[in-house]
Amino acid sequence: MKLKVVILSLSVFAYTGFTAQNIQNNPGSNHGNKFEQLGTILPTPNIYRTASGAPGHGYWQNRADYNITAYLDEDKRNLKGSETVTYYNNSPDDLDYIWLQLDENEHSSVRNAGYDASSVLRPSTTDQQLKATELPVKDNGYGVSLEKVTDASGNALKYTVNKTMMRIDLPKVLKKGEQFVFKVDWNYNISNRMKMGGRGGYENFPADGNDLYTMAQWYPRMCVYSDFQGWQNHQFTGRGEFALVFGDFKVSMNVPADHIVGGTGECKNYDQVLTSDQLSRYRKAENAAEPIEIVTLDEAKKAEKNHSKQRKTWVFEAKDVRDFAWTSSRKFVWDGMRVTIPENNNKVMAMSFYPKESYGLYRKFSTKAVAHTIKTYSEFTIPYPYPVAQSVEAANGMEYPMICFNFGRTEKDGTYSEGTKNGMLGVIIHEVGHNFFPMIINSDERQWAWMDEGLNTFTEYLTEEKWDNKFPSKRGPAWTIVDYMKLPKDQLEPIMSNSENIVQYGPNAYSKPATGLNILRETIMGRELFDKAFKTYAKRWAFKHPEPADLFRTMEDASGEDLDWFWRGWFYGTDPVDIAIDKVTVAVPNLETDPKAAAEVKYQVEKPLVNSFEDLSKIRNREDKNIKFYVDGDKDAQDFYYRYDRGQEKVDNNKEYTVKTEASLRLDAKDKEKFKNITGYQIDFVNKGGLVMPIILEFTFEDGSKLYDKSAAQIWRLNEQKVSKTYYFEKKVKSIQLDPMRETADIDTTNNFWSSTGSGTENSKFQLFKQKQEGGTVRGGSTGKVNPMQASGKS
Q1: Where are the transmembrane segments (predicted)?
Q2: 3-class SS at 272?
Q3: Could you tell me the CA-to-CA distances from 235 to 101, 194, 224 in Å, in that order?
Q4: Cα–Cα distance between 269 and 271 in angstroms, integer?
Q5: Which of 89, 256, 709, 734 lies 20 to 30 Å from 44 when distance is taken between CA atoms?
Q6: pLDDT 10s digits, 371-397
Q7: Where are the domains of the chain?
Q8: Alpha-carbon dihedral sign for residues 641, 647, 649, 654
Q9: Torsion sign, CA atoms 168, 174, 176, 178
């Protein structure tokens, strides 16, 4: 679903509900927290989901096939349906009931989820918005009316409706490997989506008196039963979207004869519902490289004027999809073209449906944007597997398998603003892209909105970039998330929060995860490593039900990068990035440093190196007659120090010895020439925001040249609050810029800059000597001092 990003500055928010905890390993310390492994924060790997992030050898998921007939009553604005559902239990569990979703009950005044929101008096309102509060609340006539629920033989089934969910009690236990067939007949009054909101409904066009129907969440849909949650039967509140099972659909839609229908999957009877001219154009479009109008603008305008009372039935079939949506209107212009996916040679029919009000934009761009989207997403995830991809202009922004509802209309004279054009392109790319997340990589939207919206927004950004390098993407680049990240903590929550408990839904579920993935790709992992790992995740979990840990683990498993610090900070926390240049110490060498003279150091021979205190274990071991110490039984191991430690060797430990230290040397003329232009720079950084990130620096020198350096985020691992970096250059540094390309989402760039002429500088000198010889003391070698063996005369 496409949301506009709106950041509100509100005073205080409080919420309760599930969020994933960012457990600190070493609280109170300046290290040992941000770089610790996620450990028990992630679920324990098992036979269903492995520690590598891949599905396990015991992975399973249930399935549901649907055969549905629908009757659209345009006069009454009512939808009547009948479905036969075949539910397959592939789980190892016995099921004695099943759950279905009745999403249309969210429009009901008495059967909705009941998730009230806080409300205040408005400073102004309109006559249509103001009405007296009704207590008790009256039934507004919307929501699902169940007519019949039976088994395959027509026997009534016991069921219970709880708001937006329905439980059917099975006549007998459904065991592993078994299937259950049942039937549901229902109807509901279709809501005016422009007034009541929501994803499905109708839009009325007063100028010509016609409706445009977007039929979404329109049939009772199976809930997911999974290895990680059991039944996902959390109520549909209108925000947290959907968790759905895969299956095959056959859907027959009986609509007014002059309506044009688009839907999930492929229409199986175009020859019965299209005119001969329209069918001929469709056949041409199947092999066209440019969009061809299948229903022309003139035909759509003509159809608007005649409200047929005749009926036609459109039949669609779709395989391996998690949902089915459709649209119906006599207002539609319809165009299409063929696009081939290079990765699998899949020939896809890209199509668009739109009223005349959006003709000037959609005829020019929509179908081409559909084709561009599925091709680009195929490059970054998996090859698009379906035969159709469709965009419908419906003043909306919502996604379903192979079809999505978008927005973007021209002025009456056919012109449009750049903002309208870009908004249309953005929403088409976003909603078509949802075919991949979550329609194929089928995450639980009800629990984790970011797993589909965030991943999809990220891939949308990549696709927008490949559409037009000047496209003004507002979600993805690191700098675009800064305003959200700098909000007070009481207006934030971790990305790893339940969909219903998010205050700033757009930034949290869409922008922040998309930005995080882009930072991983561009700044932390690099494009090659990231792209391989991201494709691995998509491939592993295509047509399956991934959870967050599956993504996190796969990204690490496929890249060889330890990213737990990033998941912990960006996904489980609310700290922002604010790394500051605290101070720069500039030091030059003293080339005239007086050499240090050789000196004599007095010392005494070492005493036996035994512990000053005998601990309990040593005493007990010595008293235990069953313990035989190795050296006591091996005469060859009883050397001088064996006896020395036991007082059996006599050494004068009071005698003084002397050892001479080596003198340093003065720099010669050649050395002075070599180092005369060297300047050292110690840059002290402070982590003011809390979230660790790589340190990226741009050095500008007095001659105008530039150098760049990047330290990985792990530079913070031993001190998460302060670090320093030292550089030596043969040219004078004029300025230092931290994060010059604004790629880490730093919320305060005013503390990212140092100038040699500004404040925050400490000047000093350091001594420079000439080293007499290469190398140094060998570890474990002679120190030059007399040892006890030598002092005893037994060397």
Answers
A1: none
A2: helix
A3: 8, 23, 13
A4: 5
A5: 89
A6: 999 999 999 999 999 999 999 999 999
A7: 1-58+441-574, 61-115+130-190+219-240, 246-440, 597-664+780-792, 673-767
A8: positive
A9: negative
